Amino acid sequence: AAPVDKNNYKFAKEFKKIAEVKMLDKMKARFVIIDSSELMFMLLDDEKFHPNYDVGVWINTEFFAQTLEQLFELAWKDMKTVK
User: Once rounded to an integer, what is the mean pLDDT over residues 52-69?
Assistant: First the structure.
């Protein structure tokens, strides 16, 4: 899931060939969940800060990763699929 607009729509269409792609417009979080046990999330809003100042945190905690994964799955159901 990612914000999809006229600038990146062609990339979303390409990704559709190998994965389900949905439009993310209500959530500004940036995170990755790895194997339901690890989590990396970015701390700063990439629209407000220069990429050189971006900071991420990697956490190895199954409980937190699975909780965030469940919350994401709930949000996923309401996201629109890229057509």
Answer: 96
